[in-house]
């Protein structure tokens, strides 16, 4: 059934094949599905771009020159539908060009991502439930407008096994007034919700441990951070403005979703699940444009909590696969979230009715100073040459219940790429009885408030094309020389060496960090040998934020998130393997994930089209200083060219000086008013 005339379709603006769906396209896809499935009672879980196959795009983008270049790519939407009230799941591929459903499939025994519509519906349901009201009354709460629920995925519940029912759990809190910090007043019970029937099917009380009390009281002390609670009179008075200006404009150019910055070129998109995605990254090296990465995005993250007692063992949030980094993205504020000369991109998602909802200023693009790029002083004549670093920043910020994650893609002038997470927001808190302690699994951040130990694992899916589609990964470990001091090959005992190991197959390419050997990895192209180094050109991948996965092998979270057990995996490219925790991560059973794919059979990953999965992490043992709001915790991974260029690729970055950046000397006693400049210092 067609829903738009040819004239209407001809007016639809042309989109690059990798651009995320527009609001009109969301509506169009929903109308096509609704028209062909008019007899069904359903809601739209998600409507998103179905990215074209990689071989098609490699031709379209001009990298594959083995055949005539593809110049048109069909525009398709991928639609996930929930039938009501059964919550059966259907997938549809919709051709927006031909206005037809190309495929329709029932997918048994899965539960798709939880949506914002469901979050609001569950909170409203919980607060009206008589059992919940009775629990609150027993705690002395008379006004239910002061009660709030954070709906969480349920992980795996012993009383509701499997995925035949779409379930959630609600973590409960109270506020003493509007905008009060609810995490200062946690409640001691957890409602369990069946989303199919939209009923609270159980309420679990969290009993105090090692306490004379059978039930804790609600902590009444307020712990707030908003300025109206702090009071203007208590704000610091010794802070003066820092103003970031680019009077001649920015150094990047934007065409649609394509970004050019100095020698870098890339495209961006935004989807409901991964959020910000970087596509088709290349670097201009002299007259040659060299391909680097086909696609980079955060594939999954998991946050396992350490407390083994029920229901805390179910607290291991998959913030990508259960909630969606796109669906949880913020609308960013100029001068607050982003500073300087800012270019914004909007995002568009869908609600349950198939209508678009827009997030203005969802992606921030800007440049920022990043200290010294390189410097050398010739001590003989005092000549100092300093070049300051600048980086391009592409970012989004997401809020997933209590936590906020600021997510940054950085591109540097020396060819370095970095992905950084700044974790902030509020700790997930649990109430304790007056005489209770957190035991071995948390810390008391305020009277009766327990912040439990937990970890954050961030798993990047990196689809490389280092100088072409066929790549390999080499692991490097450094060792003390095996020859003892005095040996002819180590006469003075100072020798150490680095051992490279090519990861040849999916069994070998499952590896962890090793700080004793300063381990890192390189993605290489074995078909292109560097003329100086006499080894394949490559790109080094590393992180100072790699951690063991502490839950036991048999734990529920280890079964559901085994990708976090290893720091690096390499698999052959497979367009159906996009998410380390499996496509249907919500209430997952562990049968579809990165570990399963890698161990299914021994597959070649040398000199072929590969995907690199890289995990970095932080083990968060909360501090009192993290409450009531947490200063950012920095965690990142980095890739750097390693024997890829002929020399430092940033040699042509001009030095700056005070005339350019308007630096001045702050007033100080005995000011010598030096007139030296960065490009020509004399000692």
TrEMBL record:
Top-tier EC class: oxidoreductase
Gene Ontology MF terms in the entry: copper ion binding; primary methylamine oxidase activity; quinone binding
List of catalytic residues: 319, 403
All residue ranges annotated as the Copper amine oxidase catalytic domain in the record: 244-651
Domain called Copper amine oxidase N2-terminal: residue spans: 16-106
Residues in Copper amine oxidase N3-terminal domain copies: 112-205
Keywords attached to this entry: Copper, Disulfide bond, Manganese, Metal-binding, Oxidoreductase, TPQ
PTM description: Topaquinone (TPQ) is generated by copper-dependent autoxidation of a specific tyrosyl residue.
Complex and partners: Homodimer.
Family: Belongs to the copper/topaquinone oxidase family.
Protein name according to UniProt: Amine oxidase
Organism: Phascolomyces articulosus
Lineage of origin: Eukaryota, Fungi, Fungi incertae sedis, Mucoromycota, Mucoromycotina
């Amino acid at each position: 059934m067609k829903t738009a005339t040819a004239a209407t379709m001809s007016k639809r603006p042309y989109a690059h094949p990798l651009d995320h769906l527009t609001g009109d396209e969301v509506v169009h896809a929903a109308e096509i599905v609704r028209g062909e499935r008019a007899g069904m009672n359903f809601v739209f879980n998600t409507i998103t771009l179905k990215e074209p196959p990689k071989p098609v795009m490699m031709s379209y983008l001009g990298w594959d020159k083995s055949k005539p270049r593809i110049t048109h790519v069909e525009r398709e939407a991928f639609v996930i539908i929930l039938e009501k009230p059964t919550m059966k799941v259907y997938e549809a591929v919709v051709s927006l060009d031909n206005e037809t459903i190309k495929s329709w499939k029932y997918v048994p025994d899965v539960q798709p991502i939880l949506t914002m519509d469901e979050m609001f519906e569950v909170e409203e349901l919980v607060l009206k439930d008589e059992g919940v009201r009775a629990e609150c009354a027993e705690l002395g709460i008379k006004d239910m407008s002061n009660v709030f629920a954070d709906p969480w995925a349920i992980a795996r519940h012993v009383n509701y096994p499997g995925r035949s029912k779409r379930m959630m759990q609600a973590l409960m809190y109270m506020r003493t007034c509007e905008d009060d910090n609810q995490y200062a007043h946690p409640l001691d019970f957890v409602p369990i919700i069946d989303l199919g029937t939209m009923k609270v099917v159980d309420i679990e009380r969290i009993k105090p441990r090692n306490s004379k009390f059978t039930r804790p009281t609600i902590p009444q002390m307020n712990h707030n951070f908003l300025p109206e609670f702090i009071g203007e009179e208590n704000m610091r008075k010794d802070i003066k403005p820092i103003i970031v200006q680019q009077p001649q404009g920015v150094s990047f150019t934007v065409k649609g979703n394509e970004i050019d910055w100095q020698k870098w070129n890339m495209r961006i998109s935004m989807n409901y699940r991964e959020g910000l995605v970087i596509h088709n990254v290349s670097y201009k090296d002299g007259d040659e444009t060299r391909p680097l990465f086909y696609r980079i995005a955060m594939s999954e993250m998991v946050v396992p909590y350490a407390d083994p007692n029920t229901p805390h063992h179910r607290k291991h949030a998959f913030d990508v696969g259960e909630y969606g980094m796109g669906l949880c993205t913020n609308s960013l504020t100029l001068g607050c979230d982003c500073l300087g000369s800012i270019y914004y991109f909007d995002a568009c998602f869908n609600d349950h009715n198939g209508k678009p909802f827009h997030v203005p200023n969802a992606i921030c693009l800007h440049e920022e100073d990043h200290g010294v790029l390189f410097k050398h002083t010739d001590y003989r004549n005092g000549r100092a040459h300093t070049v300051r670093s600048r980086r391009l920043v592409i970012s989004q910020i997401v809020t997933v219940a209590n936590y906020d994650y600021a997510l940054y893609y950085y591109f540097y002038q020396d060819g370095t790429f970095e992905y950084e997470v700044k974790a902030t927001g509020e700790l997930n808190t649990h109430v304790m009885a007056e005489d209770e302690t957190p035991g071995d699994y948390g810390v008391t951040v305020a009277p009766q408030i327990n912040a439990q130990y937990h970890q954050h694992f961030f798993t990047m899916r990196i689809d490389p094309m280092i100088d072409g589609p066929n790549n390999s990964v080499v692991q490097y470990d450094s060792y003390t020389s095996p020859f003892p001091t005095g040996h002819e090959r180590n006469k003075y005992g100072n020798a150490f060496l680095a051992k490279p190991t090519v990861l040849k197959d999916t069994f070998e390419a499952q590896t962890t960090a090793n700080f004793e050997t300063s381990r890192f990895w390189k993605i290489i192209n074995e078909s292109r040998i560097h003329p100086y180094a006499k080894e394949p050109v490559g790109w080094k991948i590393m992180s100072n934020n790699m951690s063991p996965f502490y839950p036991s092998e048999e734990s529920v979270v280890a079964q559901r998130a085994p990708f976090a057990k290893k720091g690096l995996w390499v698999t052959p490219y497979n367009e159906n393997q996009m998410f380390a925790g499996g496509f249907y991560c919500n209430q997952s059973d562990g049968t579809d994930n990165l570990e399963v794919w890698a161990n299914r059979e021994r597959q070649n990953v040398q000199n072929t089209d590969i995907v690199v999965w890289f995990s970095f992490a932080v083990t968060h043992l909360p501090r009192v200083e993290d409450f009531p709001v947490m200063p950012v915790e920095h965690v990142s991974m980095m890739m750097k060219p390693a024997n890829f260029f002929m020399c430092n690729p940033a040699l042509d970055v001009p030095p700056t000086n005070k005339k350019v950046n308007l630096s001045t000397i702050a007033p100080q006693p005995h000011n010598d008013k030096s007139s030296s400049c960065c490009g020509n210092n004399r000692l």
